[in-house]
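[Target chain]
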Amino acid sequence: MINFYLLTLFPELLKSFSDTSIIKKGIGKKLFSIIIKDIRDNALNKYGQVDDEPYGGGAGMVLRPEPIYNAFKALNLKKEECKIIYFSPKGRKIDNNYIINLTNFKNIVLICGHYEGIDQRIIDLLVDEEVSLGDFILTGGEIPAMALIDATVRHIKGVIKASSLEEESFYNNLLEYKHYTRPEEFMYLKVPEVLLAGNHKKILEYRLKDSIKETLKMRPDLIEKNLFDNKITKLIKEIREEL
């Protein structure tokens, strides 16, 4: 079982997340756990201080090292038995392969920074890796922590059906095909006929081609940087010629 440990200043935000939808069901089945640790439990004084002005001046406040370090120590985990992640715009961008690899770890500690960030000495002493959702700034690390957990637990056996994973974007380095439901016609736009005919083989062929078209249109970089089997490589060539 994977254990996610979250060090945060806003536990109420993460508690709501852990009590919702697939996350709640997975925890109930004991497929993974989420342990939330309030950094303010280790505040420096009775006023709940956890931050201070940055040395050298500048805007904002920086989280001090003592509350974060003591919050980690309170988890009673050995550093060598954990994967410790800090969310930062400096970090590597998370992708699907990174998410899948996280399922190999038993204890994942997620440090959610806030304000101008955390004291560098915590990164030097504890953090194994800094990661980012993308090239933009968020107020804190709670949102990326939730995104990382949500993406990771989907790959834990028993959380969702394996067949569902196999049809999602990035599973085979392609984007997912377009989806349709009732009604058959809406605002003069019709559902593709092949999806209504009931021929399962043709539907699979259509969806694979549509997946390739979507990838070429929306994320051509995925086509360029990944290797595909002969069947998909041939289809990519044919679709490019059609387009």
